[in-house]
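Example record used in the benchmark description.
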Amino acid sequence: MRYNKFFTDKFFHGNEQVAVFLTEDSPQYYPQPYSTLNQREFWKITSILSGQGVLVINGRRYPVFPGFVSLIHPQDLTAWELTEPLTLYNVLFQRSAVENEIQQWGKK
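Model output (structure tokens):
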């Protein structure tokens, strides 16, 4: 099985800690059964605007449809199984983008 690693420096520039992308994916880019696992160096929130398919996270399958939202941890291994084109937002962020806020929760 192939393995893709998405590195921080490809998606974040300078002091950026958050990046947002509108993306369109097609079944032709994701042959079935899936043969590639993806991992990233950052957190990712995905929000599906249109289309259907399956998001595989660490071997578990999640049906996706308009309105579906996922949170992907940097250690997660992911793959898509698409039955039709998807339009989605990817919100990528580094831990440092939320770290200060999380530390404040413990002080309240």
